[in-house]
Amino acid sequence: MRSHFAHLAIYSGIISTFFSVLTRRDRREQLRFGGLVWLAMAGGVLVLAYLMLPFPR
Amino acid sequence: MTETHPGSGGAVAEVSPGRLALALVVGWLVPGAGHAVLGRFRRAALFFVLIMGSFGLGLAHDGRLALYSPREGFLTGLQLVANLGVGPADVFARMSVYGEAAYAVPDQSSSLYRARIEKFRDRQRSAVSAYGTAYLWSAGLMNLLLLMDIWDIAKRRKD
Known about the structure:
The structure holds two protein chains of two kinds.
Chain A: H1 4-23, H2 27-52
Chain B: H1 17-29, H2 33-37, H3 41-60, H4 73-84, H5 88-98, H6 112-125, H7 129-154
Helix pairs in contact in B: 1-7, 3-7, 4-7
């Protein structure tokens, strides 16, 4: 699989699920925290990508 | 995921030093199993799926199985720690990739040198190797974090 976005989504999913279960006990809290971490990772990368758009290699 | 633990009655049960040691060893051998030893079965199953899933994705995407090199001892040492965190699965992965449980760059005069370095570079040259390496190293580091979590649970710092 070579899709950068698919890897971003899967990797963020693994990491956010892991840390939400590791650090939160209540299921609602886990969903909230996991969702926030996923959004921060995936969204952060997309924002950075757009910021770098005007500066090609 | 809220779990209840047998015999806890709301409070976290005492964990003996022997059981703690067993949980740590088993937890390193099989990701998640340490939590199962402490009675956290659902968490154990989920951690196993996440870590072995990440490890499998890493191997499938030509993730780097680091080799220790004295020339870059600190960095390659850290990479080895990340790889080894996942337990014996790392040994099996190396046996399938390198043909043996190889952990170091052989001496240049050794007959093994060229073959091992070529296999390492073949994986590194793969277009998806960077993804695979992130999955592989994350799997190992997540398992090391689980060992610290086991310690915290046993010391009643968390449930």
